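Aim 2, interim progress: modelling of the magnesium ion-bound target.
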Amino acid sequence: MHTKLLTTSEQDLREAGAILRGGGLVAIPTETVYGLAANALDERAVRSIFEAKGRPQDNPLIVHVCDTAMIPALAAGVPDAVRSLAERFWPGPLTVIMPKSDKVPSATSGGLDTVAIRFPSDETARKIIAYAGVPLAAPSANLSGSPSPTTAQHCIDDMTGRIDAIVCGEDCKVGVESTVITLAENPPRLLRPGAVTLEMLREVLPDIVLDAAVKHRLKPGAVAASPGMKYKHYAPKAKVVILDGSFEQFAAYVGEHRQTDAYGLVFRGEEQCLDLPCVSYGSETDSLSQAKGLFGALRRLDELGAKQVFARMPSKTGVGLAVYNRLIRAAGFDVIKL
Ligand code: TXA
Ligand code: MG
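Predicted structure of the complex, ligand included:
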């Protein structure tokens, strides 16, 4: 299949919308990560997303809208809390799970009776949804198991020959996927942390709880509330280990344990202070910069042929929780306390 590269010109966005309305697949920029979009209400189109990504069929997709007026048709009764969440966080990097209507095919919801809805803030994404004229199902536009794409080039690397088109927009501003919460149970639960933080959500949903799978490996046989949590995610080819300690402890540990093709995944400015090739993923005191840089840094380590990666430990508060959640998955939950 020839994959057409589109710009963000009005004419090209209109073309992307037409491809999507016709049942095609288009990678699109959003403020979080690039998404691999299809008409969420077209079962055949949605099935082709899973094929292009090599994604397990039981992993449900997020449905993207460009207006809250699109939601009542997708949900079987919109929970009351949606209004206050929308006022505060939409458009933006928050996904809300609610009971689904019959209009949403079970291919989209991964066989669940709920639907995940997101109203992105990215201007290009919103225009494409509007031109398509239908809600768009869109997982991250990476091959299943590799880090989510945060630049058009990442999509070109992963999806060329597999989808109809790629809209080549700007680099993603947030860099990690949206926060996912469910309102389909009581109390509401945070399933995946993102740029809309637990602390921010508590101001609107004081009783929201954090799903155990956010910080910990699922116990064998446990059922994942968010099926995406059970898969090994965001994994580079190298063996990644996170070292929890000061920079001095990190440097000492690495000096003793490094093997061939070992790299550091460190904070900005630390590269020069280590006797080890390094890739940085953001500044130590700025979780937003870490979120923005993490997936690109993991891809870069693969390009460099890293076999062993020692990563610096991010903070676990605010947006740091999202960074930590992605990094421990890349590390297969391998954290060493120094
Ligand atoms: O930022 C994002 O959310 C990006 C961009 C493209 O919008 N999309 C994204 O989609 O990250 P994806 O498919 O890579 O991640 C969706 C996550 C998965 O962990 C999935 O299991 C969960 O949301 N999810 C979706 N629908 C769900 C549902 N009905 N119940 C529970 N979890 C659900
Ligand atoms: Mg994904």
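The domain at 239-337 is CATH 3.40.50.11030 (Rossmann fold). The chain has two domains: 4-214, 239-337.
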